[in-house]
Amino acid sequence: MSPQFGDYQNEVYFEALFGVAPKYPMTYEGLAERARHALAPELWSYVAGGAGDEHTQRANVAAFERWGLVPRMLVGAKERDLRVSLFGLELASPLFLAPVGVLGLCAPDGHGDLATARAAARTGVPMVASTLSVDPMEAVAAELGGTPGFFQLYTPTDRALAESLVHRAEAAGFKALVVTLDTWVTGWRPRDLAGGSFPQLRGHCLANYTSDPVFRARLQDPDGDPRGAVMDWVQVFGNPLTWDDLPWLRSLTDLPIVLKGLCHPEDVRRAKDAGVDGAYCSNHGGRQANGGLPALESLAEVVAAADGLPVLFDSGVRSGADAVKALALGATAVGVGRPYVYGLALGGEAGVVHVLRSLLAEADLLMAVDGYPSLASLRAPGALRRC
């Protein structure tokens, strides 16, 4: 029998026989509690917080509780196949690391983008690298090894800069472009406002800009006072894209283009007609807008509207069981956000690896116990029901 993701629990149990307890917590709540003490208060608030009174963030999590997997017996699920095909890539599992704009600051060594890329290399879980990073995208891509990476683009108002960022992503070896649509303006975030926490305004996580020749050419003194770069970044960061911009985006690259933030089926159909390669159902984890539907409640309609187009999903995923439910609702791949950031805060690369292996082990064992040997079997009619 080939190794299965669930075998991770055997490692934990056998190490315990020799007095070795897990170094990192085994639950989301445990990870979050320890990360709260590991991170500076303003950084903790930035990562853990959401928009408004954080109702949508909580609703994202609660939405998973309204769905349950129906056990199927006598199907011989001794081995499970969690592989997926995405943009012509054969991936060992359906998980991916969702983009996080302050990732670099969250690692003990201050280079969280690199640590996360190394964790992706070790686990085979693809990383979506954020535009907002401590280290330039080329350095991040170099740490991915044979694991695919995707580049998340916050489209700047300067089209020449956008073109430069995209072409750099291509040259660095990223395999797809993920265009975030819901963050051209910052949502109302009381936690961050109360602490005045906006890392980019302090010059953090701007390496992809300050290393870019087009951005540097905009600056009067590229190597001088960093405040000049910050002020120019403020002016160039947010571009409220429209449907009319999609042909231009498509003209920039031959990479697959994924639109992040699509939760309405009509938007998905229109995006497909415009020639995009994937839909990304997400509400930014409740971080950008409060008062909206949980992203999970939009997923089935997004999948139906995509009509065969790959659908990526994130928002509220806290466990392997959550990932299984999103897959059963039709997601092609499921993104993990806050859980791996907390692992990163506790142990850098090793912490992220632990979180990913734990999530995959739980998902694998759930499929084993409930009798679902493949992702296709999860998506069969009747596998998932409202609780």
Please describe what this structure looks like:
An 8-stranded parallel beta sheet has the order 4-11-10-9-8-7-6-5. A two-stranded antiparallel sheet has the order 1-12. It contains 18 helices and 12 strands. It is globular and about 70 Å long. The two termini are 35 Å apart. Helix 2 packs antiparallel against helix 17. The mean pLDDT is 96. The protein has helices at residues 8-17, 28-38, 41-48, 55-63, 103-106, 112-123, 137-142, 159-172, 190-195, 207-210, 213-218, 226-236, 246-252, 265-273, 295-306, 320-328, 338-370, 375-378; strands at 67-69, 84-86, 89-91, 95-97, 127-129, 149-153, 177-180, 257-260, 278-281, 311-313, 333-336, 384-386. 45% of the residues lie in helices and 11% in strands. The longest helix has 33 residues, at 338-370. It is of the alpha/beta class and 387 residues long. The protein has one domain (22-380): Aldolase class I (TIM Barrel, Alpha-Beta Barrel), CATH 3.20.20. The active site is at 284 (proton acceptor). Keywords: Flavoprotein, FMN, Oxidoreductase.
Q: Count of DSSP E strands? A: 12
| Quaternary state of the chains | single chain
What low-confidence regions span 5 or more consecutive residues with pLDDT below 50? none
Helical content band: 40-55%
Spatial order of strands in the largest sheet: 4-11-10-9-8-7-6-5
Largest sheet geometry: 8 strands, parallel
From the spread of the alpha carbons, the general shape counts as globular
Number of domains: 1
Q: Kindly report how far apart the N and C termini lie.
A: 35 Å
CATH architectural designation:
Alpha-Beta Barrel
CATH class: Alpha Beta
**H/E element string?**
HHHHEEEEHHEHEHEHHHHHEHEHEHEHHE
Over all CA atoms, what is the radius of gyration? 20 Å
Briefly note the structural class of the backbone.
Answer: alpha/beta
User: How many helical elements?
Assistant: 18
* Topology-level CATH name: TIM Barrel
Could you tell me the strand content as a percent range?
5-15%
CATH superfamily: Aldolase class I
pLDDT average, as an integer?
96
